[in-house]
Amino acid sequence: MTRPIVEVDRVEKRFPLKDSLIARLLGNEEYVRAVDGVSLSIDPGETLALVGESGSGKSTLANLVTGLHAPTSGTIRFDGEEVGVATRRDPEVLADIGMVFQNPKGSLDPRIDVENVIAEPLKARGWSRSEWKPKVEDLVDRVNLSPSYLARHPHELSGGEAQRVAIARAIALDPRVIVLDEPVSALDVSVQAKILNLLMELQADLDLTYLFIAHDLNVVEHIADRVAVMYLGNLMELAPTEALFAGSTHPYTETLLSAIPSVDPTREKDRVVLGDDVPSPVDPPSGCVFHTRCPLADERCVGEVPDPVTVGEATSWCHYARSFADDQTRLVEAASDD
Ligand SMILES: Nc1ncnc2c1ncn2[C@@H]1O[C@H](COP(=O)(O)OP(=O)(O)OP(=O)(O)O)[C@@H](O)[C@H]1O
């Protein structure tokens, strides 16, 4: 069995709401529970997608994996080694994980040309000009940009071109894992497909592992091997992409799937619309955190935190995952009764 390259074990991340000394002394300091006890692992060469609404904790979880945040509790292991405070600053560990962000232009320094943007991480590691120059030329070629782009500045690039540059920079130090935080959300649909294809090509050529964050499921269908669905800092469902699209095991996943516009009439789903009343992560609901919006919730969901349930290849944090997987029509009926 292959050992996972990333292991997230019962990780919590809480941010203090206000830095009030009095609240702290009185012991009633309030916290945002951004990530609330998540466990998952990523295998080498795999693409794991993290999806969920805004504020569900996706970026915080990604920042925990890259070491930008330290967990409040729980552990993160990279290639079997716990990513602790010391290793988090270790240049070797940092070089193993690359990052690509949503807004490509915003993530590139506007004052420097593409050649120097891509060379930045290499220079920071002490590469001389004669060492980094050929490497940068190879990187621009790898992301399918011609050498003429090297002299351009970020404002002279389209969104897709800027994202190619950001990807070239992210792979400069030959990382093993890349965290892609909404890498195509800011791009036109036709450009999105090209960037996704490029990412898949690079993954195959360079043996990369991806943690791919997206707020909707549409984008991840073709790139992800597995999908982790998050809601209010908790995992709702974790399943192979194909299995998830063939039939989800959690009412929350189903609402996300039903929101995808489909060009395939056999995939047409009745849209399940939830109210906007997402509870506060400062005081999340008891039991299943999704119960306040779930059209199928009952007393058990209010009172008991669901244990993970295995349904086929999926793991689901829903008391009724098995019966839900068998019959999702009840959700549509219950939602339209509301
Ligand atoms: N540094 C911080 N300090 C305080 N609260 C934070 C901090 N970072 C994130 N949060 C809160 O943690 C929760 C999870 O945020 P996070 O950005 O991880 O969600 P997300 O799913 O990535 O959302 P989005 O899709 O909008 O980026 C939110 O309630 C957010 O306001």
Automatic annotation (TrEMBL):
Keyword Nucleotide-binding annotated: yes
Gene Ontology molecular function terms on file: ATP binding; ATP hydrolysis activity
Keyword terms of this UniProt record: ATP-binding, Nucleotide-binding, Transport
One Pfam family it belongs to: oligo_HPY
Keyword Transmembrane listed: no
Domain (ABC transporter): residue spans on this chain: 17-257
GO annotation, biological process: peptide transport; transmembrane transport
InterPro entries per record: AAA+_ATPase (IPR003593), ABC_transp_ATP-bind (IPR050319), ABC_transporter-like_ATP-bd (IPR003439), ABC_transporter-like_CS (IPR017871), Oligopep_ABC_C (IPR013563), P-loop_NTPase (IPR027417)
SMART domains xref list: AAA (SM00382)
Gene3D superfamilies (UniProt xref): P-loop containing nucleotide triphosphate hydrolases
Similarity comment: Belongs to the ABC transporter superfamily.
Protein name: ATP-binding cassette domain-containing protein
Species this protein is from: Halorarum salinum
